[in-house]
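Check this.
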Amino acid sequence: MTSSTLPRSTSTEAEEFAPAYSHADDGDSDVFVCRRSSPDFDPSLVPADVTLYVYGWHNVEPGPLSWVFPSLRAALDAVETMKNAVSWCIVSGTEWPSMDDAREEGAVLIEQNA
């Protein structure tokens, strides 16, 4: 297919990507952040509280520890600052008596193994 046979759009690239350019006003960025919109997306399905379990450590061995956070982002920020935490998982909710119980029910949102 040659360039002369490609269908032409009536809108310009700037019009098509206008919402994405709002995060990169200079227009020189190769990264475009667009808001994901989906008719199937239900904000109530996003877990309000999450539990961070740390079960593997580097240089220290305090044993398994857990903390509750108000969001997945907050838990990820916290575990990132814990330089000695090498094995951890974040599960949805706060009602889990153990990490293994959360795993059995499929509540693990994200996990890192050393």
Q: What stands out?
A: The mean pLDDT is 76. Residues 43-112 form one domain.
